[in-house]
Known about the structure:
Chain A is α/β, with parallel strands linked by helices. Chain A has helices spanning 17-28, 63-76, 127-130, 139-142, 158-167, 187-195, 289-309; strands at residues 6-13, 33-37, 50-51, 61-62, 80-83, 86-92, 95-100, 105-113, 117-119, 135-136, 150-154, 173-177, 199-202, 205-211, 218-223, 229-233, 236-239, 243-245, 275-277. At the A-B interface, helix 2, strand 10 and helix 4 of A face helix 5 and helix 6 of B.
Amino acid sequence: MGEIEKRVNTVIIGGGPAGLTAAIYARRSLLNTILLEKLTPGGQAATTDIIDNYPGFPDGITGPELMQLIEKQAVRFGVEIMFDEAQEIIPKDSLYIVKTQGGENLLTKTIIIATGAEPKPLEVPQEKQLRGRGISYCATCDAAFFKNKTVAVIGGGDSALQEAIYLTKFASKVYIIHRRDQLRASKMLQEKAFKDEKIEFVWDCVLQNALGEKKVEGIEIKNVKTGEFKTIKLDGIFVSIGYNPNTAFLNDFIELDEQGYIITNEDTETSRPGIYAAGDVRKKSLKQIITAASDGAIAAYKAEEYISKNK
Amino acid sequence: MALIQDNDRKFLIDKFSKELINPVKVVLVTGKKGISQITQYNEEYLEVIQQILEEVKELSDKIELEVIEFNSDNPFIKEHNVEFLPFVAILGAKNSKVYFSGIPAGHEFTTIIEDIVDVSREETKLSKLAKEEISKIKKPVNIKVFVTPTCPYCPRAVRLAHQAAMENSLIRAEMIEANEFPELSQKYNVYGVPKTIINDSVEFEGAVPENMFLEYLRNATAEN
Lengths: 311, 224
């Protein structure tokens, strides 16, 4: 199992809004805290162009800016951010060991899982070959490669519409391919997208395949009502069809729902004592930055309570 | 007008005073508009990058800034194999090959700050396993990481490459701002970022975890 290298009160897994808020609260309770982040702090929120619904920013704020502010706040209270990925959780007496990809073993009293969710991949034959060659999961990252080009956004939720609106700054035309004839996105975003002359909605259609060998040259779509197939020539496909929770590393160690989200009570407690889940990784009805932050605060509060009770 | 905002400046002064140990030399290679190392897409940034770096220098007395005008006879240009401008190198005692081609702005500003800290401390944040493996590489390795300033995943990919370069001086790791070098981006089929290319033979998209990065590095070095 390897030697124990660090002993802490709390290991927070994931540095998005849930994990960073948990870090702020944990550190303010003077819990010795390590936050594991596999990529860059900020999570999915950092890939959002403009955030208009987080209170306190009357004119909106960009995702990266908001997340940098929250990270700074967590760092100010002394959280240690470790760039590594959790691989496994192993119980040890009344404690837990978090094993990491980088070979560290962290012995901890409590764990806050805030690993979030990842965009669902397109399940079309050419996905693997064309990923990074016209198929993108991040409009803010890659929009600039599609100046004066035609692109499609697949999906109909808030993030699909936000991406489409962002893409109109670069692309000459943006199709939104949606499997139904109604959108899940908020009414305000819908209105904005409907008004945009560069955006064209393609209703009741699902993506059958991405066309092209070395780069995307078009898409093949199928109308789910009529069964008709159609191809559209275009240069880029932006995928926004929902998320999968990042819970594979848990290997059924804690209770998950059918889709892999962690089941908790309203206090973010999971099926294991001392382990909490916060943010998009938790089964809940509204996945937003504000609810992720709220989960993080509750999880840290409960972690502290657990540690005091089990001294 | 200052490019680094007041509150960021305070944060960075504090960070550097706590974290920097040894002196760090930041070298900017710049040039006159119109020379072939500068594209029409980045000439407008030449003054901006110089100003950013001058402001960074002011954040700590451990940071030195040298500005060099491009000249192919200059020994620095030869030694560091400077091809694209503006070019930035972060140099410490170990003479690691930690480079930026194009402006390290937006999200990449974080990268340059973290690089300065690591070079100054002569210590990276890679895991023990990664450090061991990278130190065993015996042949030169060239890593290019294409980014855009609006890509939040990109700093992670650049930092992995830069830290690898700090751990082994045979590794040359260069961030390339894709928008400023469209021909280069086209040559390497960059339509999404981050995109990492190792020894022009192994390439991968996305900010991958450290263990996957090591695997790609292993594949690229095994082929040589």
